[in-house]
C-alpha cells in the first residue's frame, strides 16, 4: 500500500464514522466537507500517466524543456505528506509504506517492425544512377 492508498483509506474510515454517528451531528457537515476536500487533493495528486519512467506525481507538475517531474515518487509529494500528517500518520507507518510502482504496459498483440525489418524492406541505394557531373576523381560505381 502506498501513501495515496493509505490516505484514501483514512478518508473512507472518517466518512464511515460520520455515517455511524460517531461525530456530533453539529460537526457532520464540516467533517464531510473536509473529506471532500481531501478527495479533491487526492484526485489531483495521483500517479502521472504521462510519465512512464518513474512513479511521478501528476499534481506537482513538471519543469524544463523535457517536462521532468517535480516529484520523482508519489510518496514524496508534499501535498500528500501534509494530508497524511493531518490524518495522523506516524514515521513508522510512513517508512512501512510501499513505493508506488508504474503500471505494467499491456502486451502488444501486433508485431512491431524493427529497424532491420524496415531496412531490408527498402530498395538498396545504388550509385550507378549518379550523374557524371557529380562523380569525383576516384569514382567507383
Number of strands: 2
Largest β sheet strand count, sense and barrel closure: 2 strands, antiparallel
Percent helix: 40-55%
Identify the overall geometry.
rod-shaped
What does the average pLDDT come to? 87
Cα end-to-end separation = 67 Å
Order of helices and strands: HHEEHHH
Uncertain segments are none
Number of helices: 5
Strand content: under 5%
Protein architecture, described:
It is a single chain. The chain is mostly helical and 141 residues long. Helix content is 42%, strand content 3%. The protein is built from five helices and two strands. It has helices spanning 3-19, 25-44, 78-86, 91-96, 115-121, and strands at residues 62-63, 68-69. Strands 1-2 form a two-stranded antiparallel ribbon. A hairpin with a 4-residue loop joins strand 1 and strand 2 (68-69). Helix 1 packs antiparallel against helix 2 and helix 1 packs parallel to helix 3 (78-86). The radius of gyration is 28 Å and the shape is rod-shaped. 13% of the residues are buried. The mean pLDDT is 87.
Amino acid at each position: 500500500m502506498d501513501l495515496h492508498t493509505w490516505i484514501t483509506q483514512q478518508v473512507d474510515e472518517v466518512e464511515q464514522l460520520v455515517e455511524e454517528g460517531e461525530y456530533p451531528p453539529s460537526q457532520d457537515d464540516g467533517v464531510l466537507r473536509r473529506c471532500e476536500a481531501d478527495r479533491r487533493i487526492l484526485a489531483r495528486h495521483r500517479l502521472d500517466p504521462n510519465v512512464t519512467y518513474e512513479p511521478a506525481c501528476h499534481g506537482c507538475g513538471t519543469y524544463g524543456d523535457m517536462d521532468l517531474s517535480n516529484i520523482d515518487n508519489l510518496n514524496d509529494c508534499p501535498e500528500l505528506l501534509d494530508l497524511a500528517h493531518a490524518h495522523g500518520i506516524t514515521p513508522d507507518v510512513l517508512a512501512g509504506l510501499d513505493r508506488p510502482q508504474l503500471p505494467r504496459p499491456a502486451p502488444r498483440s501486433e508485431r512491431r517492425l524493427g529497424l532491420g525489418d524496415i531496412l531490408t524492406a527498402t530498395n538498396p541505394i545504388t550509385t550507378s544512377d549518379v550523374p557524371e557531373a557529380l562523380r569525383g576523381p576516384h569514382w567507383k560505381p
